[in-house]
């Protein structure tokens, strides 16, 4: 039995959706590392709408970010406040890649993530899990899909949640976040050499889950 599963890939590839189901099926803990960077971005915006680098560094300095697995999914708290919904707003999404590019933000988050995975039995998703956070993971997946398909998925999701979104704007935001995440100096988004590439463009959620479970046997 493989006890540590790492899933990386660009925005909207389906990482959190499938990671959550795989974790449930295996009785593992699901760790959404993107939610942690979103938590830092949320706190920064609480303190300054400009979100300059020094504002981000101030926000992360004494931050207490926690993830809790509940029946209704992962709850995220920042300094004791539940921000599960607030970290998904377009404002947070707009600055999160800039927040996540800073070395001291990454250092702090990676330390927490490694501690959370220390006892095994985890499915962790993000951008640098297989390459940097958990290089010894038993299973590494690089989950991707065409940018068109990823934008379509995110568009449907945002509409369902009641956000007024423009498809082309969303596609542009996703492409620009992928570019920032792939081109940053520290732990950029890339497929680990020993990761299995899964293109979900024309796969259902169940098909992706089945493939990951098979690789985890
Ligand atoms: O769910 P979505 O794909 O929109 O993004 P997310 O997983 O919530 O991650 C938000 C952002 O956090 C990403 O665009 C990255 O900039 C950053 N991130 C990161 O740098 N490293 C990770 N391990 C996870 C997320
Ligand atoms: O975590 P990441 O940003 O990679 O993606 P997500 O937040 O899981 O969003 C993916 C969206 O696409 C969700 O609304 C899923 O229902 C949908 N979807 C999927 O995840 N996988 C497929 N194979 C097909 C659709």
From TrEMBL:
Entry's SUPFAM superfamilies? P-loop containing nucleoside triphosphate hydrolases
Q: Which residues bind ATP?
A: 9-17
**Which EC number(s) does UniProt give?**
2.7.4.25
Q: Which UniProt keywords apply?
A: ATP-binding, Cytoplasm, Kinase, Nucleotide-binding, Transferase
| Organism superkingdom | Bacteria
Subcellular location, record wording: Cytoplasm
Looking at the keywords, is Nucleotide-binding present? Answer: yes
InterPro entries recorded: Cytidylate_kin, Cytidylate_kinase_dom, P-loop_NTPase
Cytidylate kinase domain boundaries: 5-215
GO cellular component terms, alphabetically, are: cytosol
Concerning its family, UniProt says: Belongs to the cytidylate kinase family. Type 1 subfamily.
Output the PANTHER family linked to this UniProt entry.
Answer: CYTIDYLATE KINASE, CYTIDYLATE KINASE/PANTOATE-BETA-ALANINE LIGASE
What is this protein's record name? Cytidylate kinase
Which organism's genome codes for this protein? Selenomonas infelix ATCC 43532
């Amino acid at each position: 039995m493989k006890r540590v599963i790492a899933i990386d890939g660009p925005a909207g590839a389906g990482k959190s959706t499938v990671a959550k189901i795989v974790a449930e099926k295996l009785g593992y803990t699901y760790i959404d590392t993107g939610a942690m960077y979103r938590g830092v971005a949320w706190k920064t915006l609480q303190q300054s709408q400009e979100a300059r680098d020094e504002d981000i560094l101030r926000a992360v300095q004494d931050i207490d970010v926690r993830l809790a697995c509940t029946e209704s999914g992962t709850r995220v708290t920042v300094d004791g406040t539940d921000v599960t919904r607030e970290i998904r707003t377009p404002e947070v999404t707009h600055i999160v890649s800039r927040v996540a590019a800073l070395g001291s933000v990454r250092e702090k988050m990676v330390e927490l993530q490694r501690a959370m995975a220390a006892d095994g039995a985890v499915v962790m998703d993000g951008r640098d899990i297989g390459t940097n956070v958990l290089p010894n993971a038993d299973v590494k997946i690089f989950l991707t899909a065409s940018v068109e398909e990823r934008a379509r998925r995110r568009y449907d999701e945002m509409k369902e949640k009641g956000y007024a979104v423009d498809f082309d704007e969303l596609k542009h935001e996703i492409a620009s976040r992928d570019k920032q995440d792939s081109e940053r100096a520290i732990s950029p988004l890339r497929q680990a050499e020993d990761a299995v590439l899964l293109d979900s463009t024309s796969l259902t959620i169940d098909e992706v889950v089945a493939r990951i479970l098979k690789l985890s046997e």
